[in-house]
């Protein structure tokens, strides 16, 4: 494919630096720690690292509140370490994708410190200020982290907008100077040779606060086209927007190459399927596998040539997939591999979140004092006041809380799990002695080696990257089966999404012994009567 881009054949690995590898015993992961683990990532075979924020930050939201875009967080190291990380990664053909958090800054960013000084300050307009209405907040906008999105500034008597924590004031993108600042800092990082950007809540930057419009504002795409022109347009980089409200139609607006905006977006439709309609992420309902199949199929087929997909189960905001929709007890390895096989043989660019590749699980908390995440803590307070029981709230946090993904990476079976020799900033999952990198590397049948193999398959078989996707219908609901077709070749991927054995009868598909990858011992597949074991998944080439 002559027009293909490197990021279309890539596999991206997300590092959450705080929890990846501590190198100096302070209990907090750091850049030196990442450098020390590059050989591991090279062995896994990934193309690029998406690095969650490493910039200077007071850590109200673990680095998603930035006080200096051109400097490194003290706990993580120095700019010299950052330059070395980029360089050392490059030597292993791994690119570094920076997290671009420009919907808001920290309240400790010099722009906000200035803006707060008064209505006449030249930086005032960098943020969104409004007068009170009837002695109260300007309108009903709510923060994602609970409570109103408006905070009163006592000095001026005006409110400022914060769609996240009150320590994350929203930037005013309508101000041309703000956009210019953003282009400048992006160019600063592009000049360092980074491989691109993951753009935090980028769908919010076109907000119209007075009309209570937050996502997908009218000028959003104009801004992104300006960004493309002013920054990465001349560079061969990957850009991926975090867009919670995207539909396939919206995703095409971002990722149609002709529009010169982004490479792709993260779409979140599939990860909302276990939440009650019209409520928020904490209000749980069981997943319907049928719904999951239809949502993923829609995304596989509807972007066509006018867009490109991202593929993911996990990130630093989401619970661990093996605990969420798999079985992290009896069938942990089987279900972890099932998710891997199912996703990595789809069309799009796969993202692996640290620890997913060894089947790491959620961490059950029994008391709110164990929780560090601002989103969970604020929700806890809000719901206690609203009359929910502690048990209910903790059940929600255990199912969906962001700390589930943020417990330290489990490298080995020594105390601290090989993450730190000190006191870890967040509890290490007590299962580190059974689930760790060391054992995964040693066991050829491990979750890690399944991921490694899938990554290699994508890199050696164009059908994985380019093949057309077709869902196989007429199978039991818990069976997820699809075909990929490319240049006369057909692959079939089958997955049993449940803990019970199931049989499929599709005689028209014949039989084949060309198994490509499987999570159980399997030499062939006879579709006249195909028996799938609990969480069994495999791919096979059809004759
Ligand atoms: O997340 C955006 C966001 O809306 C999340 O807070 C998400 O809604 C929530 O975790 C799940 O309900 C991005 C970052 O990924 C997140 O870590 C940041 O906290 C947030 O933006 C603010 O920068």
TrEMBL record:
Any one GO molecular function term: alpha-amylase activity
UniProt entry keywords in alphabetical sequence: Glycosidase, Hydrolase
Pfam families linked: Alpha-amylase, SusG_C
Domain Glycosyl hydrolase family 13 catalytic stretches: 14-406
Domain of life according to the entry: Bacteria
InterPro entries per the UniProt record, alphabetical: GH (IPR017853), GH13_cat_dom (IPR006047), Glyco_hydro_b (IPR013780), O16G_dom_2 (IPR045857), SusG-like_C (IPR056300)
GO biological process entries: oligosaccharide catabolic process
NCBIfam families: PRK10933.1 (NF008183)
UniProt similarity note: Belongs to the glycosyl hydrolase 13 family.
Protein name per UniProt: Glucan 1,6-alpha-glucosidase
Organism expressing this protein natively: Paenibacillus stellifer
